[in-house]
C-alpha cells in the first residue's frame, strides 16, 4: 500500500539541468516544489582528486547501472531487440545533476534553421527536397529561434558561458557573460588553416569558464584549470557549470524546494475525476522499497530522453507511434548523431594531454543551411570543430591505418602518436525517419518489473551522405594544418550501440504547433494533460549539428515560465 504524501504545487521527476531549472524558477516564484531524484545526492566535494581514468572514463562510475535499468535495441523491425548490458554509444547519467555532471560543457545554440527546418527547406528548395516519400519526417518545432532567444540568453547567464559571437549563428541579445577560453597551439593551427580556406572559426562556447563568475542568482562558478578531466568526470574545482553548483542550490536557498533522493518514479497518475489532468506521481524509495504517492498541482517530467518517454508510455498518456500506419506521436522521431572526421599525424608533439571539455574552435560554414544544398542529396550539415579535451592515456590510442590492434607494433605506434595525432570532426545533424522510434519492449523488464524502452534505429542514406561530405571538408582543413598524413573516417554502415559516439539522443516526446505531429506544445505542456509538462532533448523534432544542452536549457526556462503561468493563472491551455 503506497503512502500518500502532502500535496505540493510542483513535482519534478529528475533533478538535473531541466529539473533544477524548473525547481529554481518555480521556487523563486513562491511555489512549493519537490524534486524526485532516483539517484543519490552529490556535489563538488565528491570529486576531489578524481583523476582516475579507469574508474570514471572506462568503468563509468557516474553512469546508470545497466544491470537494473537499460533499454533494448535493434536496427529494424525485423530484428529481435536485446538488452544493452554495456554502456556504449551513449552514457546515461545517474544521481543528482544527471548527465549535467559529467558533460563536456560545449554549449552551442541551435540555428534558426533548426526550429523551422521544414518550412525553410520547402521555401528555398521546394517540397521534393523534404523527401517525405522516402520516409523522412521533417517537422517545424512550433517555436522560432527569435522566440527562444531570451531563454538561451538566460541559460547562458546562469552558467556564465565563455564564448564569442558567431557570425553564422542566430542573432544575440547580449554577448556571452565571460570571455572565450585560452587558445592552445593546435587551436591556433586550426584557426589559421580555416581562415586561409575563407571559413569562419570561433572559440567554442564553453561551460568550463575562462574566469571566476557570479551568476544572476548569486552562485559562483570558478575558473577552469585545464586539467583535462571533464567528460565522464565531475569537476573538482567547481569550474564546469553543472546543476549542483548553479540551479539546484538556487532552488534550495528559497526554502520552497525539497529534494528527495533515492526516489524512482514508476507511474504518472491521471486524475480520477478529470482525465485531462494528472494528480501526481507514484515512486519507490530505492533503499527501503517503500512506495509513495506524491500529489501535485503540476507534474514536470525532467529526466533523460528515454525515461521521459517511458513514464508517459507506462502511464498510458498519449498515443504510441506506429511506423506501419504513421499514427501516434509518442516515441516518434527518435534521432541520434553522426560524425565525419579527419585525423592528422604530425612529427611535432603537442600538449594535448592538457585541455578541457569544451576547449576548442568550431565553424558553421557547413552547418544547417549555411551552404547551398541544391546539388547535394542530403539536408542540414554539421558544426566543424577541433577540440582539445585532454588525451588521457588509456583511451587515447590513435594509430595510423594498417597498425595491428594489439601487440608490440600497436604499443609502439600508440606511444609515438600519443601527442602527435589530432582530429578535426564535423558533428552531423540527424534527421527523423519513420523507421527510427521508441517503443516499449514486450519481453524485458527493469528491476522494478516495468518493461524496458525498446530503441529501433539505424542510420539512413541521409546520414551516410552527410558524413562523407563532412569527412571531406575535415580532411581539407587538416591538410591545410600541415599534417604529414591525413586519415578520413570511413563509411558509416549500420548503427552499432557500441562503441561510444555521443550522448546526444533526441526525440520521442517532440514539441510542435499541433497535437497531430507532437507530444507537447511550445511551453512543453502535454496536449492530453494540461498540468503535465515534459522537457528535455526528447522535445527535439530532429537533431542538429551541435551538442543539445544549450537548447535543452533554453526549453527548460521556457517550460518553467509555462509552469509558473499555469500555476498562477489557475490552469488551462497555454498559448
UniProtKB/TrEMBL annotation:
**Which of UniProt's keywords are assigned here?**
FAD, Flavoprotein, Oxidoreductase
* Superkingdom, taxonomy of origin: Bacteria
Extract the GO molecular function terms from the UniProt entry: flavin adenine dinucleotide binding; oxidoreductase activity, acting on CH-OH group of donors
From the record, give the transmembrane residue ranges: none
Q: InterPro entries under this entry?
A: FAD/NAD-bd_sf (IPR036188), GMC_OxRdtase_N (IPR000172), GMC_OxRtase_C (IPR007867)
Spell out the Gene3D superfamilies in the cross-references.
Answer: FAD/NAD(P)-binding domain (3.50.50.60)
| Keyword Oxidoreductase in annotation | yes
Q: Which residues form the Glucose-methanol-choline oxidoreductase C-terminal domain?
A: 432-556
Q: Where is the Glucose-methanol-choline oxidoreductase N-terminal domain?
A: 145-333
Q: Does the keyword Chaperone apply?
A: no
Q: Which family does it belong to?
A: Belongs to the GMC oxidoreductase family.
Protein's name according to its UniProt entry: Gluconate 2-dehydrogenase flavoprotein
Question: What organism, scientifically named, is this protein from?
Answer: Jeotgalicoccus meleagridis
Q: What is the lineage of its organism?
A: Bacteria, Bacillati, Bacillota, Bacilli, Bacillales
Amino acid at each position: 500500500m503506497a503512502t500518500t504524501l502532502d500535496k505540493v504545487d510542483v513535482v519534478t521527476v529528475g533533478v538535473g539541468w531541466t529539473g533544477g531549472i524548473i525547481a529554481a524558477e518555480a521556487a523563486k516564484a513562491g511555489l512549493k516544489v519537490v524534486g524526485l531524484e532516483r539517484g543519490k545526492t552529490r556535489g563538488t566535494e565528491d570529486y576531489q582528486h578524481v583523476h582516475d581514468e579507469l574508474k570514471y572514463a572506462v568503468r563509468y562510475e557516474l553512469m546508470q547501472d545497466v544491470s537494473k535499468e537499460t533499454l533494448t535495441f535493434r536496427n529494424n523491425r525485423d530484428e529481435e531487440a536485446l538488452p544493452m548490458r554495456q554502456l556504449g554509444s551513449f552514457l546515461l547519467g545517474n544521481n543528482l545533476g544527471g548527465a549535467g555532471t559529467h558533460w563536456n560543457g560545449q554549449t552551442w545554440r541551435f540555428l534558426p534553421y533548426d526550429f523551422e527546418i521544414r518550412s525553410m527547406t520547402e521555401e528555398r528548395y521546394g517540397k521534393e527536397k523534404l523527401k517525405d516519400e522516402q520516409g523522412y519526417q521533417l517537422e517545424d518545432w512550433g517555436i522560432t529561434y527569435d522566440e527562444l532567444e531570451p531563454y538561451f540568453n538566460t541559460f547562458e547567464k546562469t552558467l556564465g558561458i565563455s564564448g564569442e559571437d558567431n557570425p553564422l549563428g542566430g542573432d544575440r541579445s547580449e554577448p556571452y557573460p565571460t570571455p572565450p577560453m585560452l587558445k592552445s597551439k593546435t587551436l591556433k593551427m586550426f584557426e589559421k588553416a580555416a581562415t586561409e580556406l575563407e571559413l569562419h572559426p570561433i572559440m567554442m562556447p564553453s561551460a568550463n569558464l575562462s574566469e571566476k563568475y557570479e551568476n544572476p542568482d548569486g552562485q559562483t562558478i570558478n575558473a577552469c584549470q585545464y586539467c583535462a578531466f571533464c567528460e565522464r568526470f565531475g569537476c573538482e574545482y567547481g569550474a564546469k557549470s553543472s546543476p549542483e553548483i548553479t540551479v539546484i542550490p538556487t532552488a534550495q536557498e528559497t526554502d520552497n524546494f525539497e529534494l528527495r533522493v533515492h526516489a524512482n518514479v514508476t507511474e504518472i497518475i491521471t486524475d480520477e475525476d478529470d482525465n485531462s489532468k494528472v494528480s501526481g506521481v507514484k515512486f519507490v524509495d530505492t533503499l527501503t522499497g517503500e512506495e509513495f504517492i506524491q500529489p501535485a498541482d503540476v507534474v514536470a517530467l525532467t529526466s533523460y530522453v528515454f525515461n521521459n518517454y517511458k513514464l508517459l508510455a507506462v502511464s498510458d498518456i498519449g498515443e504510441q507511434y506506429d511506423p506501419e500506419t504513421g499514427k501516434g506521436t509518442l516515441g516518434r522521431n527518435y534521432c541520434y548523431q553522426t560524425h565525419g572526421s579527419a585525423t592528422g599525424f604530425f612529427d611535432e608533439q603537442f600538449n594535448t594531454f592538457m585541455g578541457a571539455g569544451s576547449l576548442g574552435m568550431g565553424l558553421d560554414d557547413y552547418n544547417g543551411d549555411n551552404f547551398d544544398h541544391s546539388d547535394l542529396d542530403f539536408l542540414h550539415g554539421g558544426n566543424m570543430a577541433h577540440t582539445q579535451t585532454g588525451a588521457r592515456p588509456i583511451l587515447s590510442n590513435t594509430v595510423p591505418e594498417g597498425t595491428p590492434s594489439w601487440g608490440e607494433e600497436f604499443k609502439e605506434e600508440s606511444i609515438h602518436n600519443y601527442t602527435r595525432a589530432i582530429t578535426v570532426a564535423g558533428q552531423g545533424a540527424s534527421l527523423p525517419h519513420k523507421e527510427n522510434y521508441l517503443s516499449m519492449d514486450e519481453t524485458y523488464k527493469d528491476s522494478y518489473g516495468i518493461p524496458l524502452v525498446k530503441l529501433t534505429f539505424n542510420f539512413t542514406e541521409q546520414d551516410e551522405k552527410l558524413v562523407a561530405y563532412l569527412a571531406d571538408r575535415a580532411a581539407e582543413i587538416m591538410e591545410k594544418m600541415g599534417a604529414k598524413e591525413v586519415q578520413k573516417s570511413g563509411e558509416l554502415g549500420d548503427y552499432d550501440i557500441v562503441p561510444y559516439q555521443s550522448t546526444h539522443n533526441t526525440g520521442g516526446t517532440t514539441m510542435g504547433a499541433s497535437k497531430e505531429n507532437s507530444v507537447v506544445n511550445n511551453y512543453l505542456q502535454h496536449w492530453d494533460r494540461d498540468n503535465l509538462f515534459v522537457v528535455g532533448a526528447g522535445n527535439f523534432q530532429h537533431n542538429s549539428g551541435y551538442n543539445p544542452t544549450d537548447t535543452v536549457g533554453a526549453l527548460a526556462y521556457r517550460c518553467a515560465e509555462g509552469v509558473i503561468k499555469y500555476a498562477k493563472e489557475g490552469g488551462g491551455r497555454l498559448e
